[in-house]
Design a protein that fits this description.
By secondary structure, the protein is α+β, with helices and mostly antiparallel strands. It has four domains: about 5-215 and about 235-360, 7 Propeller (Methylamine Dehydrogenase, Chain H); about 405-410 and about 425-475, no CATH class; about 490-590, TATA-Binding Protein (2-Layer Sandwich); about 595-750 and about 760-780, no CATH class. About 25% of the residues lie in helices and about 30% in strands. The chain has a six-stranded antiparallel sheet. A hairpin with a 2-residue loop joins strand 20 and strand 21. Helix 6 packs parallel to helix 8 (about 650-695) and helix 10 (about 720-735) packs parallel to helix 12. The longest helix is centred in the C-terminal third of the chain and has 48 residues, at about 650-695. InterPro entries: PHTB1_GAE_dom (IPR028074), PHTB1_N_dom (IPR028073), PTHB1 (IPR026511), PTHB1_CtH_dom (IPR055364), PTHB1_hp_dom (IPR055363), PTHB1_pf_dom (IPR055362). Keywords: Coiled coil. One of its GO terms (biological process) is cilium assembly.
């Protein structure tokens, strides 16, 4: 940040949505007024050409309109504009406009107005050249030492230099070893052209060498012999830069100085006319543009240099003399003389911000006003203070809160005839500290969906959602909430015969189900409260039956996965009901056996869909390779000058395309089925974890460990699936806290790394490990993450034990806790 800013003298915003670049700005007496005052010519990539004559203190809308002499919409994009003597037999200045495929030369003239509207300016086309190649940039000068008028040289995108002498085309030459175009400049002192090649070196070509070189009709291989007369084009001298050049300039303001300036990406170079280096300046920023101009000290050159930090720097050779702050990144800079200001700095940004400024500082004429020495009215001050305090209290009540409303609905792709259930949810976000750029994310599990899952909050005075520490590290707070059961199911008639049944035992007398599920009791057919049926929007039906003689509840359904939500809701509502009644010794249990075979059906179904997805992917890859091979052979046949029979390649191409489309549709359908199968598998896993926790009376921490083991992923990915992730997690528990002997448990600690997870061949190993996990837990196994530190480590892995802790001490600790080898003592 500079201490001083560039002093604005005149500025204008050019259009909306237009783009500008380095060659879109030039200054000069384009209307040949004879006063020596410059005009600003600006062209844009949208084809808009504007000419300005700035005046002091006229940066308002009316001032910009008065300063604008001309505005013309051309048909093509404007790449570069230059002012020079481009018309033969005329000493007047003309305007050259370079388009991608055209070079146009205009004359700009002004007519004195007889009314208050001022002078009128017009632009007439003198001549134009249609280019056979796409242009990149151009330069002009007195080529060949001819005085009195300027010739033009245009560099094309494919490396051809096209020379024009007024309204006639002279010749064209291809640059050797060309790959990409670079900056182009003409040195009149040596009558040579300078450019930076793709080899990142500065090359100099004399005009005489270009004129006698091989005629450029088409690009030729430099290794092949010449087909026509003439010499091979070679540079007179080269200078290796080692970086890409942004701009190239040869100043002519002093006959004593013979310098060539090159602006690189990280360095500034100054060379002599013969290619010898004068000095080099390493830059500590990313430059954007530069311009050499005359210095008051003999033997030195001043430079204006803009960078991407909105700075305009003034150098005298390699010494920084001044730094000024701009309000934008300049892409072009010029120095102009206006009637009220000599040596104004003209800068242009990429979005059309045109600024005329000067260096220096303006004195401040502000003086502190005198304060009236009158006595304060304390009653008035006290009333104003109470009014302000009341306003602050009212603002505090409403400030820092954001009320967001979103809708959660149920997606039922299998039952499109059912009406989707819609639920409105309001989220209130409060604030306790100043926060910026906070975001609220709502996440629900399929088949539920939200209308809007992310909210970008406005800056809040207080917030607990997202806050930043003093170190700048973002922190996130999460809040979980349960949605009502009525969102996904409706009351229905109980089913008498079902395929799957689960029984939950309690130690309290039977409870009326209508009092537990009040939102479903009004529409239930059973008035005694002994049975209640739920029908999900997907079509599945779950029935809850309460025993009249015992303390048991049966949940039954034709779908094993759909019972989880009802069982979970039933257990939670039992806890809430007996907690309100003051019962402290309420217990619920599951007598078993665990429905592992039913659970494994969901596992096998999900695994088969994953295998099918992999097969579809392989088949698609094969057909795609075949399709591209047929395309290449057909293209070769079509390009052949001698027509040949297609040999049914077109029929084979159509058949392959049909196969690719059919496989893609089948893969997409399989992907939808795989997503549905994973949702069902997740529900079945939740049900298994719940039954296992009820069966063995697991604590909440142990239940969380078990749930994280059996549900390691939130969703399947092609790289990592549920089967391999779950198998790795279960195997870790079996080798650590659920191992049979301390030796196996300690050996698992010494294992580092493991095989890369991938799609298994079958699910037999996974089923075996899950069955073994349930068996170990049923025999008294304890789920804990800290058990690895409570075993006796063998001698070969003693280095993994904690410092100062021996195996004998750990064994005594195990005996005190009544736990050895995963079983109760």
């Amino acid at each position: 940040m500079s201490l001083f800013k560039a002093r604005d003298w005149w500025s204008a915003a050019l259009g909306e949505g237009e783009e500008f670049d380095q060659g879109c700005l030039c200054v000069g007496d384009v209307d040949n007024s004879g006063t020596g005052h410059d005009k600003i010519v600006v062209g844009s990539y949208m084809g808009m050409l504007r000419i300005f004559s700035p005046h002091a203190n006229k940066s308002s809308e009316t001032g910009i309109a008065d300063a604008q002499l001309l505005e013309v919409q051309l048909q093509n994009a404007i790449i570069q504009v230059e002012v020079g003597k481009f018309v033969s037999c005329s000493e007047l200045l003309h305007l050259a406009v370079l388009h991608p495929r055209k070079l146009s030369v205009y004359s700009v003239s002004g007519t004195a107005g007889n009314v208050e509207h001022g002078d009128q300016y017009q632009m007439k086309l003198v001549y134009e050249h249609n280019l056979q190649r796409t242009a990149c940039n151009m330069t002009y000068g007195t080529f060949g030492g001819v005085t009195g008028h300027h010739s033009l040289c245009i560099q094309s995108m494919d490396g051809m230099l096209m020379f024009f002498e007024q309204d006639s085309y002279s010749f064209g030459r291809f640059l050797p070893g060309f790959l990409l175009p670079g900056p182009l400049a003409y040195n009149s002192r040596t009558d040579s052209f300078l450019t930076v090649s793709s080899a990142r070196q500065l090359e100099s070509y004399k005009y005489e060498t270009l004129a006698v070189a091989t005629e450029a009709e088409s690009r030729q291989d430099p290794d092949l012999p010449l087909k026509t007369g003439g010499k091979r084009l070679m540079p007179d001298w080269t200078f290796v830069l080692g970086e890409q050049a942004l701009d190239l300039c040869v100043p002519f303001f002093s006959h004593s100085s013979s310098s060539i300036f090159i602006l690189g990406e990280r360095n500034l170079y100054c060379l002599r006319d013969n290619g010898q280096i004068r000095f080099m300046k390493k830059l500590e920023f990313n430059p954007s543009c530069f311009l050499p101009y005359a210095s008051v000290t003999d033997g030195t050159t001043n430079l204006l240099l803009g960078n991407h930090t909105n700075m305009l720097l003034v150098y005298q050779d390699v010494t920084l003399k001044w730094a000024a702050q701009l309000s934008f990144v300049p892409v072009a800079v010029r120095v102009a003389n206006f009637p009220e200001l000599k040596g104004a700095v003209v800068t242009l940004s990429t979005d059309g911000h045109l600024l005329c400024s000067y260096m220096g500082t303006d004195p401040s004429f502000f003086s502190t006003p005198k304060v009236d020495a009158r006595e304060a009215d304390y009653e008035q001050v006290d009333a104003e203070m109470k009014k302000l305090q009341k306003f602050i209290r009212e603002a505090t009540r409403t400030q820092g809160r954001r009320l967001l409303e979103l809708f959660i609905f149920f997606l039922s792709p299998l039952s499109p005839r059912l009406t989707l259930s819609l639920f409105s949810l309001q989220v209130t976000v409060k604030a306790s500290c100043v926060v910026q750029s906070s975001k609220l994310t709502i996440g629900v599990q399929p088949p539920l969906a939200v209308t809007q899952d992310q909210f970008v909050l406005e800056p809040m005075d207080f917030s607990i959602l997202l806050y930043l520490l003093f170190s700048g590290v973002p922190r996130v707070l999460q809040s979980r909430f349960s949605l009502p059961l009525a969102l996904v199911c409706v009351p229905s008639s109980p089913a008498k015969t079902t395929n799957f049944k689960i029984t939950v035992d309690t130690n309290q007398p039977p409870v009326d189900l209508s009092s537990i599920f009040r939102e479903f009791s009004a529409k239930s057919e059973d008035k005694d409260g002994n049975s209640l049926a739920f029908q999900f929007l997907s079509g599945a039906k779950v029935t809850v039956l309460a025993s009249k003689t015992s303390q048991r509840y049966r949940i039954q359904s034709d779908s094993f996965e759909d019972m989880w939500l009802v069982v979970k809701e039933l257990v939670q509502r039992f806890d809430q009901h007996f907690s309100k009644m003051g019962v402290k010794d309420f217990k619920k249990s599951f007598s078993g056996p665990l429905p592992l075979q039913e659970y494994f059906l969901s596992v096998d179904h999900h695994f088969q869909l994953r295998v099918s997805a992999q097969q579809y992917q392989d088949l698609l890859s094969e057909r795609a390779v075949q399709f591209r091979a047929i395309q290449r052979r057909l293209l070769t046949r079509f390009k052949d000058k001698t027509p040949a029979p297609l040999q049914n390649l077109d029929t084979l191409l159509d058949a392959t395309y049909s196969q690719v489309m059919a496989l893609a549709e089948a893969a997409e359908e399989n992907r939808a089925l795989l997503e549905e199968a994973f949702v069902r598998l997740r529900s079945a896993t939740h049900l298994l974890v719940l039954l296992l926790s009820l069966w063995q009376g697991l604590t909440p921490d142990q239940t969380a460990i078990l749930e994280a083991t059996l549900l390691p992923l939130l969703q399947d990915t092609p790289q990592l699936g549920w089967e391999e992730s779950c198998d790795a997690a279960v195997s870790h528990l079996l080798r650590s806290c659920l191992s049979r002997s301390p030796k196996d448990q300690a050996t698992s600690l010494a294992q580092t790394g493991g095989p890369v997870l991938g799609l298994p061949r079958d699910t037999a190993r996974l089923k075996k490990h899950i069955t073994l996990l349930c068996d170990r837990i049923s025999k008294g196994g304890r789920l804990t993450l800290a058990s690895e530190a409570n075993v006796q480590v063998p001698a070969q892995v003693q280095n993994l034990a904690a410092p100062g802790e021996s195996g004998r001490g750990r064994k005594r600790e195990e005996q005190r806790e009544g736990w050895m080898g995963g079983k109760s003592v």
